[in-house]
Structures are given as C-alpha cells and as structure tokens.
Design goal:
Oligomer: heterodimer
CATH class of chain A: Mainly Beta
Mean pLDDT of chain A: 91
Strand content of chain A: over 45%
Helix content of chain A: 10-25%
CATH topology of one domain in chain B: 2-enoyl-CoA Hydratase, Chain A, domain 1
Low-confidence stretches of chain B: none
Largest sheet of chain B: 7 strands, mixed
Low-confidence stretches of chain A: 11-16
Structural class of chain A: mainly beta
Number of strands of chain A: 11
Order of helices and strands of chain A: HEEEEEEEHHEEEE
Number of domains of chain A: 1
Strand order of the largest sheet of chain A: 1-2-3-4-5-6-7-9-10-11
CATH superfamily of chain A: OPCA outer membrane adhesin/invasin
Shape of chain A: elongated
Distance between the termini of chain B: 93 Å
CATH architecture of one domain in chain B: Alpha-Beta Complex
CATH superfamily of one domain in chain B: 2-enoyl-CoA Hydratase, Chain A, domain 1
Number of helices of chain B: 12
Number of helices of chain A: 3
Largest sheet of chain A: 10 strands, antiparallel, barrel
Mean pLDDT of chain B: 95
CATH architecture of chain A: Beta Barrel
Distance between the termini of chain A: 28 Å
Shape of chain B: elongated
Number of strands of chain B: 14
CATH class of one domain in chain B: Alpha Beta
Structural class of chain B: alpha/beta
Radius of gyration of chain B: 25 Å
Largest interface: A-B, 41 and 41 residues
C-alpha cells in the first residue's frame, strides 16, 4: 500500500510541476474523410475514398520557451469506390502516428501572430483490399518531416492554428512490381514485417504534404472545442505510382491541464 | 488574414478537381479495354517462357478484331480465346456484374469434377469416415476390411494444418495410407507443406520460386528455394499412395512436390492440372470486368518446369463419369490392388 501511495504522490507532484512549466492539452476528434486515389499497383482506375476519421492528440506548450511538442494519431476506416462499377468497391484503412517538435520563431502584432518551425517523425499507413484480399495494395512510410505552424489569436476565446508538414526522408514500403511475391506470401500473417520492408527515399520517389487548419474555441480554462480541416497529399513515382489526396473535416474536444 | 483565407480556399477548390490530381481517367471503350488487358498480361504474366507462349502472336490475331463497335459479348469471347491460348487455369476473365467468368485451360478440370465422388468413396470403400475440418473436405477413415488408412484432402486450406498430427496418430497402426487429393482445388502452399511434413523422411530440396518483377518476359526476382521437411509430432513412413486427378491443382500440386520427394510415396491416378504459380491480384478494367493470371515460375531443382505438364503419375488410371454413375471408383481400387501386389498389404 505504501508503495502505491508513494507512486501516486510522485505522479501528483509531477503533474503539479508539469502544470507550472507547461500547458498541456489532450484532444479527441471525430470527423469525415473524403479523398481521391489512383494506385497503379492496385488498378488503373480512379477511386473516390470516403470514411470516418478518429484522431487523438497530445500537445505540450512550454510557457517559458514557447516551444511545442505534439504527439498524435489518426485512424480512418472506409471505402474506395470507382465510377465504373459498384462491384469494384474496396475497403480502405488509413492510419498515422506522428510526433513533432516546434520551435517558436517569431511573434508579432502584440503576440497575436506566432510562427513556429520544427521537425517530426511520422508513420503513415494506407491499405486497401477488394473481395477479401483478392486484390490489395498498400503504402507505408516511416520517416522525418519538416513542420511549420502559424498561430493567430483572434481574441481570448478564439484562435486559428495552421500547420503544414512536409515529409523529406522516408522508409517507403510498397508492394512489389507484381503486387505480391514470396516475401508477401510468407509474411501475410505478419503485416508489420511487410509494412516495415521498405527502402529509404526522398523527394525523388515520394513526396507530399499534410496541411491542417484548426479553429479553437475556448469554453473554459479546462475545455476547448475545435473544428479542423486537413488536406493530405502523397505521391510516389516509378512504374506503379500512387497518388492519394484526402480532405478531412473533424470536430473535437480538448482538455487542458 | 483575408488573403490567407483566399489562398486556402483556392487550394481546397483546386485540390477537389479529380482530373487535376489523378490525371485522365481510362476511357471505357472496347479498344482501350483490349489494350489494357493485353498490355497488363504482357507486362506481368509469369509463364510465357515456361509455357513457351508467344503473347505477341495473340495481339496480331485479335487486335484487328476489336473496334469501337465491338459488343461486350464479342469482347468477352475475344478475351476468352486470348487467355485460352495460355492454357493456365490460374488465368480468368470475368464480369462480376453478370457473374460471367471464363477460366483458361479449364475444360478437363471441370470434366474431372464428375469423375470423382467423395460420397461414393465414403459409402463403398471407407469405414468410419471422420471429418477433421468443419466440412468433409478434410477427413479420414479406414479402407473397409483392410489395414489401410484413408485421408481425403479436398483443398489445401484450413485454419489449422496441425490437425494432420491427430490424423496420423489415429492411423499409425495401419500398414499403409491412401491419401486422396482428387478434386483438390488448391489453397495455401504453406498448409500443403505442413500436411506433407507428417510423411517426410527427412529434408529434401524440392523446388524454386521466382516472381516476375519487370516488363520483360524474362524479368524475375531472386530464386527462393523450398524444402520438404518433417513437421509435427510423428511421421508416417510406411507406404503412402497419393491419388490424383486432373482437378488436382495449384497448392494440391505443390503438396505433390513435397510428397513425391519421399521414398515411400507413389502417385496413382490422372496427371494433375499443371498450374503451380501464385495468382496475381485481381485486375480491373474500365468496363468493370476483372481478370487474374499467374505471376510466378516454379521450377524443379533441375530447372524443369511442370507448369502446363503437371505431375505424371507412376500408375496412370482415371475414372469416367460412367464409372462413378455405376458406383465404381477404379482409382481407389487400383491403389488397394497396388498395395497388395507391391507390398503385400491388405
């Protein structure tokens, strides 16, 4: 019992210390995802993507240094459809885990505008399959991003934050030339191995951006409400190139502590 | 602030335009569908060399037959004739909307379906047939009044291939086993290897696999070597007769690659289909049709391909539909005779 009391006390002191130096936010948001997809490894047809999106985010703002640490994850499950035939509708899954650090660069107009720049890490997975894996394809990236953030404080209760993230060095995992090979077949029950089996690339093989604009309404000291729009684009080059664009709109709640 | 909003709005509107982002959509007309179909197979099919097929000659014959006014029925007939030339039952063309499918090289396979009856085998030749899987496509029993076990495998696919260990434990007192893989439509090569491991006398190098990985017909990735090896709690090393027919296909034939490397195994029945390769992902055409083809090349350790040839049995015999109708399975009877004449087992 004494052991648990000790741990709880340490945690309590840690939270107080955290609160003294930082402002922390945990956010949860739900929304819709719509997109466009063309993946020559999967099909030569154009697909429209739709589905629901769930995101979780932790943000820490340092009061003293004004820098920001963000950790988040997105998950989207949905369908990709082609105009050609309803029989070709396929399932899609999209997921992202990201961690970023932003350095405060500049503030102006009485601190109403704040500009940040930083870098981050993101793992990004797109998977779609038709008719119980009779056809499938995927894109997985694991790598570094350059990030920029602009924060405009409208007034005490309202602010807009716009962030752009550009991947610049990635481990890119894509299906082989013919969609599957012995490696895929042998590891079909170990998808993590497949999604980690990539090659190191930069802008010549993979490029894109993720742009987020978020409006935040401060309800109380503890709670914010937010609405955000994300525009994500990713492209690969080569024989079986992929183009994927997403529009995402989400509403969320943030707890400040 | 206003400027920023305008820029954002323009960016969103611009990025909503499908054509700008994805480029031109493939047009749905007979000529483009034909070109996509021919090119896709040309650039991905894995067995042009192994099966000695000249795909360019197909283009010379069929391309002039496709015009803007070609009907769907005519185009489907043309595609069917094109893939029939490949004589590869892993290759098909289909229209999911009308449920119309054509499978290449499938005539004899379909015929073989009616030349076997598990119901007949179970009722006339087997005692206590017990299902191992949820259906009777994996089961075992004992030949009536003989010391011979019987196993039927109708597909190489089940959640748990280790179930074979229980079957072997149940049949280990038998003097021989007849392992029936007639009408086996294939499935999972790893499943096939695990089942065969219950009969392995040791490790054997049995075949190589390469997957096509480029636009030339001869572009393949690195060789992957495959071995048969003992797996499971115990091995059945007494005589085993494997029964095959023309509808023993794909992973069923890979299973035979394993089994025929063991000295106690004899293949009796008809020559198998000769279709080993893993299939491609399903491919899609602008008219909504789907198709699929072989993407790999399986070779024996000596470099020989059995694609298009199949496994030729040591003892050739096949049923006719009339045999099945008259309640006789000549193949299983031949296997029982063979065990008596060769090993004195009854």
């Amino acid at each position: 019992m004494a052991k648990y009391t000790c741990i709880i006390s340490i945690l309590f002191l840690f939270v107080i210390e955290l609160k003294a130096q930082n402002e922390n936010t945990i956010g949860l948001s739900f929304g819709v995802n719509n997109g466009l997809l063309k993946d020559l490894n999967f099909s030569r047809l154009h697909y429209k993507e739709s589905g629901h999106l769930f995101s979780l985010q932790f943000l820490r703002y340092s009061i003293k240094r004004k820098d920001i640490i963000e950790i988040g994850m997105d998950f989207c499950s949905g369908k990709i459809k082609t105009d050609v035939s309803t029989f070709l509708t396929a399932n899609s899954i999209y997921g992202k885990i990201r961690a970023s650090y932003y350095l405060h660069i500049r503030a102006f107009k009485s601190n109403k505008w704040n500009i940040y720049a930083g870098a981050g890490y993101a793992t990004n997975l797109l998977y779609f399959e038709w008719d119980d894996n009779e056809a499938f394809s995927y894109l997985a990236t694991h790598g570094l991003t350059l990030n920029f953030k602009v924060n405009y404080i409208i007034n005490k209760r309202n602010q807009i934050i716009s962030t752009i993230s550009v991947p610049f060095l990635q481990v890119l995992a894509r299906p082989p030339y013919n969609g599957r090979n012995e490696f895929i077949i042998e590891n079909e029950n170990s998808p993590a191995k497949i999604f980690l089996d990539g090659k190191l690339v930069t802008f010549n093989h993979y490029y894109g951006f993720s742009w987020t604009t978020k409006y935040i309404f401060n309800v109380s000291k503890l709670i914010d409400l937010s609405v955000n729009y994300n525009l994500n684009l990713q492209k690969t080059t080569g024989v079986n190139k992929l183009i994927h664009l997403q529009h995402q709109v989400q509403a969320g709640i943030n707890i400040n502590f | 602030m206003k400027k920023l909003l305008y820029i954002a709005l323009i960016l969103i509107i611009f990025s909503s335009c499908e054509k700008v982002i994805l480029g031109d959509e493939e047009t749905n007309n007979p000529i483009n569908n034909y070109n996509l179909f021919w090119n896709d197979i040309d650039q991905h099919y894995g067995l042009f060399t192994a099966r000695d097929r000249n795909w360019d000659s197909i283009n010379i014959v069929f391309e002039p037959q496709v015009t803007a006014s070609t009907t769907d029925a005519q185009l489907f007939a043309i595609f069917s004739q094109m893939i029939e030339y490949l004589d590869d039952s892993h290759t098909y063309i289909g229209n999911p909307a009308t449920n119309q499918y054509y499978v290449s090289g499938n005539t004899l396979n379909v015929q073989a379906i009616d030349e076997f009856s598990l119901v007949l085998v179970k009722s006339k030749y087997i005692d206590n047939y017990t299902n191992v899987a949820d259906n009777d496509e994996f089961g075992y029993g004992k030949i009536i009044n003989k010391n011979i076990g019987y196993i039927y495998l109708g597909k190489m696919d089940d959640n748990d291939p280790t179930k074979i260990d229980h079957v072997i434990a149940s049949l280990k007192t038998q003097k021989a086993i007849i392992l029936d893989i007639r009408n086996n439509g294939g499935g999972d090569d790893a499943f096939a290897g695990r089942i065969a491991g219950a009969f392995a006398d040791g490790e054997h190098f049995i075949y190589t696999v390469q997957t096509r990985n480029g636009q030339k017909h001869t572009d393949f990735d690195a060789i992957s070597k495959h071995f048969a090896k003992p797996q499971g709690t115990e091995q059945f090393l007494k005589p085993v007769i494997v029964l095959t027919d023309r509808y023993t296909i794909s992973a069923g034939e890979v299973f035979l690659l394993h089994m025929k490397s063991f000295p106690q195994v004899t293949q009796i029945g008809d020559t198998t289909a000769g279709d080993f390769s893993t299939t491609s992902n399903n491919r899609f055409l602008p008219n909504g049709w789907t198709f699929q083809y072989s993407i790999q090349m399986f070779l024996l350790p000596n470099g020989q391909s059995l694609d298009g040839t199949g496994h030729i049995p040591q003892v050739y015999i096949k049923n006719t539909q009339a045999d099945i109708s008259s309640q006789n399975d000549k193949v299983i009877e031949k296997a029982i005779d063979y065990l008596w004449l060769t090993y004195g087992i009854q």
